[in-house]
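To: structure desk
From: M.T.
Subject: fold request, one chain
Message: Could you run this one when you get a chance? Sequence is below, nothing fancy, just the single chain.
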Amino acid sequence: MSVAAELPNLTPPDAIEAEPGSSLWLDAWHRLAKNRLALISAILLILLAGACFIGPLVVTNTYYEQNLALGATPPSARHWLGTDKLGRDQFVRILIGGRVSIMVALCATFVSLTIGVTWGAIAGFVGGKLDAVMMRIVDILYSLPFTIFVILLMVLFKDFEARFRWLEDYGIPFNLLLLFGAIGVVEWLTMARIVRGQVMSLRKQEFIEAAHALGLRRRRIIFRHMIPNILGPVIVYTTLTIPAVMLLEAFLSFLGLGVQPPMSSWGLLIKEGAEVMEEYPWLLLFPGGTLGLTLFALNFLGDGLRDALDVRASKD
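Reply: Done. Structure tokens follow.
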């Protein structure tokens, strides 16, 4: 019997099929899909946003149509969530208010995200005296009361309203645009600290040293190699920034510094409902409940994303 006949039938290495790999983003999605509370929250937020932007186009009532003879009425078949003191449909006003609150939250969060990520990435990557100066500026801004600082910004730039009157021709009130910028300017500080810490931990990694060896510019290294590798923590904190911005917008509207009638936001509706809560409790319960439900869903989604994008969990 030959030796070749006694050897087992070995498969050539090239014929062995390699097991398909799995990216960190795909693993994160699988972990997020197992978190039912986060998944339900995401679906709820999508449905709520869709209702706010599509609902007013479908229903027959409008948010500015007044019926003084009707006055404030409790929920009924015609007015699902009742009407306010001027006879306006509360359901439509909540949907329109949701548009404004969601737009303020997203736009202000985008402003804070842009400033915070850029500031923190530059400070963490460059280091040295520039890092010390930039972070001391952050510390000084941290010492200022956020709400008072936003109010001062809105009052200060209110004098420029006449110069931006042309925005109203496109349906963009100046006070709404001012609200976007004022909230975004003060909400980037924590994001900058988070990004700085993440960038400092990546600064000595092999792929960054290889980028230096190839002679790449600092700007390219920061925006093409650093920032894409810290998107996990950035996304998680962004989902937690949105509810904070929505609460701040609601507080400013409650004080009369935010959205002005006939436009509405959830904060403005809560203010109007709080004034007549004893006589007409539904005017406070429904907008307050909608805002509370949205904030809970955003926080649950943020917790789910934090667990899903955790690097240590992805290595298990």
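Reply (cont.): The mean pLDDT is 79. Let me know if you need anything else for the meeting.
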